[in-house]
# Entry
Amino acid sequence: MRTEQLEYIAAVTRLGSLRRAAEELRLSQPALSETVRNLERELGVDLLERKRSGATMSASGRELLPHIIGVLDAVDRLRSAAGERHRISRMVRVGTVNAATVPLLIPVVREFRAAHPVTQVEVVGAQQTDIHRILLEGGFDLGLVNHLEGDDVPAEFESTELLRGRPVVCMRPDSPLACAPSVAVDDLLDVPLIGMRSGYVMHRYVHRLLDGRGLSFAYSTDGAEMGKLMVAEGLGATVLPDFSVIGDPLERRGALTHRPISGDTTQVLLMLQRRRAESVPQAARDLHEVFVRTARTLSAAPAAPGAP
# Structure
């Protein structure tokens, strides 16, 4: 068994495709496939499930994944202790629902990269169900997901609450909705509403909030970032957690503002999740710590002047 065989398995798991892994590793796909097959024969198990849509970890592979990660992490520590400078950099992958990408994720990545200059951070936007699936398959190291207070938290993951906020209506400062200190639920029916697509927590929240009162989204989109851009361009208003808006560059430049929803006490939780495993890569552990530390700083920060 060779270390590069484990590197190859990790790459296929992360990218979900033998072809994409071969491209990243600069190997031919037949050579990569044969190397993986040799490892499977040596271990006596099928590590991958090969489908037309791609390759994913098999059930046996998922059981062995923590051990594979442990070996690769140990090799990294050995190389670091030996002072090796020209090794292949490890990658940390984060799946996110984009609810706090700019205010939280950007400072986290900046601090992490300062301490880990050879470790690449890959940020992948996805729906919560996809993030959970890919975490279990080993393709993501960490996942950022939203929960409404009272939602069940999957037992398969270690979950850490990063931020707790309230849903707010996000609009342009010149919107009629910005004239009052809060927005009534019925007022949402009088403006073009930009909704998150089905599968996002805020999609579920808005439908629950309006309770069948003639809701019709004028637009729908994947994730908060595009929703905020559409609001800034004057297409309508959207409903997001306040921690997704406060501190956003568009808000800092005066292109966006926000108001709470009258009479609503719902809490939205931003959770950082990772697969329960005995062995977690050191880089993933370090990034987890930076997330927690940065979230505490954001939570302790005073509200911006003039914020409702």
Remarks:
- The chain is about 40% helix and 20% strand.
